[in-house]
Amino acid sequence: KLSEQDSYEGFDFDNVWVIDEQETSAPYLKNQKALNLPENTSEFAGGNGTIFSPYRIETAKQLANINNHLGANYILCNDISFDDADFQGGGMFYNEGKGWISIGCDFYSDFEGIFNGQNNTIKGLVVRNQKYMGLFGSSHGEIKNVNVEDIRIESDSVNTIYTGGVVAANYERP
Question: Are 128 and 97 in contact (CB under 8 A)?
């Protein structure tokens, strides 16, 4: 476990580092306070977005909320299915006819965190007329272990640059 001192070979826990195994914290320098961020349960099913406590995603709305925190870490806790009604007028993901707003919608606001789908599936996504179209639009982050099924990518625009099921444009991490 990452919150256990034995996991950190070579760390000097006598003189330099501290770890609070009861609080599931990461190691921190003795002269600094622990990084114990509160869980975000208003936008996600829990977690604080760190590598040790990634935001937990259980619903389509929570999945969309990744766009509010593009540099954080996430785990997908279950499959998520969208209905056609979600993308029609009045639907939760209509977005003025664009459907799903890709996570990291362009190169200048791209996803930079870690997303672990834990082999879960996102089904029925509809993306229309955006520059970067997919579950993720533009990414410099790490996206792994996620499946997509029945994704519809529709464009009648010359402004569409990249398309993909999981990610439209995946750039090397800086």
Answer: yes
Q: Quick: pLDDT tens for 7-45.
A: 788 888 887 777 766 555 677 666 654 455 677 889 999
Question: How far, in Å, CA of 49 to CA of 148, rounded?
Answer: 23
> Cα–Cα–Cα angle for 127, 114, 86, nearest 5°?
25
Tokens of 102: 């890709």
Token look-up 């935001």 returns 55
**Full-model pTM:** 0.77
As given in the structure block, the two tokens for residue 44 are 């996600």
Tokens 């006598």, located at residue: 14
Contact yes or no for 141/111 (Cβ under 8 A): yes
Q: Which residues on adjacent β-strands are paired with residue 139?
A: 111, 170
Q: What angle do CA 37, 41, 46 make, to 5 degrees?
A: 70
